[in-house]
Structure formats: C-alpha cells, structure tokens
Amino acid sequence: MERRRAAGLHLVVCVSFLQAGCTGVDATGASAGTSSSQGLSVVTTVAPITSIVANIGGDRVSITGLVPEGTNSHTFEPPPSASAVLSEADVVFLNGLELEEPTRELAEQTLKDGAEIVELGTTVLPEADYVYDFSFPEEEGKPNPHLWTDPTWAIKYAEAIRDTLVESDGANAAYYRGNFQAFERKATALADALRADQASIAGPRALLTYHDAYAYFADTFGWTVIGAIQPENFEDPAPSEVADLIDQIRAENVPTIFGSEVFPSKALEQIADETGVRYEDTLRDDDLPQEPGDSEHSWLGLMRYDYVTMITGLGGAAPTLEALDVSNVAPDNAYYPQ
C-alpha cells in the first residue's frame, strides 16, 4: 500500500513540472512515461478511461491522466496546479455520471477556446438506464458511474472517443476508425470469453463486494450483486447492515466475498470470519494491473483479471479468459500517475 499513499504527492509534483512544459516527471526528476508531443493534447481522468482513449488515439494523440491509480476517484480533488494541464488540452475525456465533479469544474474554468469536455458515461447511457444501488442510492441523485466494467458499455465509450477524435483531427480519421474496429473485436472477444467461462460456476453468480462497481456488468451478464460494504458516504456500514449481509451469505451459500485491493475492509474480514467463506481482496475497478508499460496494464488486462478472479472465486474455471490476448491495439504512451 506504500505506492497508494504516495500517489497524491506524485501527481502534485507531476503537474508542477507540467507547468514548466514537461509531460510527466516523477518526484526524483526521472521520466515518468510521456506521450507523443505531436497531435491532439488529451487529458483523461481514471486509468481505465485513459487506457481506452490510448487504444483509439494511439500515437496520434498526447494523453495525460489526472487521477492517480489506486485513488478513490469519487472523492479525488485535483490540485490547483492541474489547471495547467487542463488549460493546454484540446479534449478532456471524463467518465461523467457525476464521478469526477471537482475535475470537471476545474476543466470548465481553465479550458482554452475551442477545447471540448466529453463525459463518456453521460453521453452513452440514457437516463432511463441509470442504476441506483447500495453505494449510489437514488435519493442522493448520483447514479452508479461504473459502466467500464461491462465490455459492452466500454465499446460504446470507445465509439464516443473515436467520434470525438475524428471530428477534432480529421486527418487521422482512418487511423482512429481502424483502432476502434480492432478494440471492438478484442472487447467482444472478452465478453464472449466471459460468457463461456462463467457457465462453469455451479452455484449462483452472486457478488458481495466492497464497492458496487459491477452493477451494469451484472445486468448484462446475468450476475446478482447481493450487497456492497461501502455505503454511499464511504463510511463503514452499520452493525445491523453487516448482520443482514451475514444472514444473506449464509442463506445463498456464497463461497467467496470480494474486497478491493485499494481499500482494505475490516467489515468484509468480519463477515468472512463469521460465515467461514473465503475473502478475496484483490478486485480493482480503476487501478490497472502491473505498471505503466507492462503488457497487462490496460483496460483489457484489468477486466480479464477481475472476471477470472470472480469466476474462480465462485468455484468456476476461466481457461478461455486466461488464454485471451489482452494486449493493446495501438501504442499506449499515455501518462498514468501512480
């Protein structure tokens, strides 16, 4: 967890150097992985969105992520120095659905003339399809924003990214369209592999998670989210809520409950101890596997990891997913703050 505690400092140092014209320098002064200096300047927020944008934009765009991996994106506050990065952007891609409101507000204040903010989730998801649930109750007015954990919605994100880049940079339209087609094939293969492997689960496809990041995925692929430990205010659940979940797990005979590799949960540990089920604490929704530049540091690698973890945790096997090629379809030179 040491890497996580250092993330905020890393971003502040990085964006301070960006004010001086650098595109990614860590606290030691060493290069932190930069994008091409040519083409459109693109700013993104969470790492899965950065990865999808990189798959479509490839080496024709310069991409800078703002939200450090492993950070709670719901509560992330961009430092004032992030305005320098945003002021140079031609396009800012957000998830939207009220996930990154402080970043959106800062972008609106600092964008140069002609620059564009694209809220991907808000763009592709009809309001009638908004999901409200354990972590995102309807009375609070904020829908569950985690569309990207469902590959069918990630393809729609990629479509919106393609259309934005084509409109902003028509000279490279064929390149962006070709990358989208390749990404769509890989995301579709991921969905097909998931459907094939989840059939090996003998019992219910039931998820008790730390954070409710799989609501849209569950609707598409026939899973049931039976609970989420993290309430909408990000505090610990009440003892009565924990007791209810313990009763539900016993009633439904769930073999594994799933925590987050970013946020350790004493409540989930307690539930596991009292029910005798396995506690798997490595799920991740916006922290990509491995490190920037590694082969599985991608949206594809992230979702393959989560699906394999969930299927095997519930007693199934995932040979189709494990054999899947999760490499990017275009060069990923984006900057991912750590």
Your description of this structure?
The chain is of the alpha/beta class and 338 residues long. The chain has two domains: 2-191, Rossmann fold (3-Layer(aba) Sandwich), CATH 3.40.50; 197-322, 3-Layer(aba) Sandwich (Rossmann fold). The protein contains 13 helices and eight strands. It has helices spanning 2-5, 7-19, 47-57, 82-87, 101-110, 120-124, 151-168, 173-198, 215-221, 239-252, 266-275, 299-313, 319-322, and strands spanning 40-44, 61-65, 91-94, 116-119, 206-209, 224-228, 256-260, 278-283. It has a four-stranded parallel β-sheet with strand order 2-1-3-4, with helices on both faces. Helix 10 (239-252) packs across helix 11 (266-275). The protein is globular and about 60 Å long.
Concise summary:
With 338 residues, the protein is an alpha/beta fold.
Helices, strands, pairings?
Layout: H1 2-5, H2 7-19, E1 40-44, H3 47-57, E2 61-65, H4 82-87, E3 91-94, H5 101-110, E4 116-119, H6 120-124, H7 151-168, H8 173-198, E5 206-209, H9 215-221, E6 224-228, H10 239-252, E7 256-260, H11 266-275, E8 278-283, H12 299-313, H13 319-322
Parallel strand pairs: 1-2, 1-3, 3-4, 5-6, 7-8
CATH class of the largest domain: Alpha Beta
Indicate the low-confidence ranges by residue numbers. Answer: 1-37
Distance between the termini: 12 Å
Overall structural domain count: 2
What is the fold-level CATH name, i.e. the topology of the largest domain? Rossmann fold
| Rounded Rg | 20 Å
DSSP E strands, number? 8
Indicate the proportion of strand residues: 5-15%
Structural class: alpha/beta
If helices are DSSP runs of H or I spanning 4 or more residues, what is the number of helices? 13
Q: Estimate percent helicity.
A: 40-55%
The H/E string reads HHEHEHEHEHHHEHEHEHEHH
Instruction: Assign the CATH superfamily of the largest domain.
Output: Nitrogenase molybdenum iron protein domain
Physical arrangement of strands within the biggest beta sheet: 2-1-3-4
* Shape estimate: globular
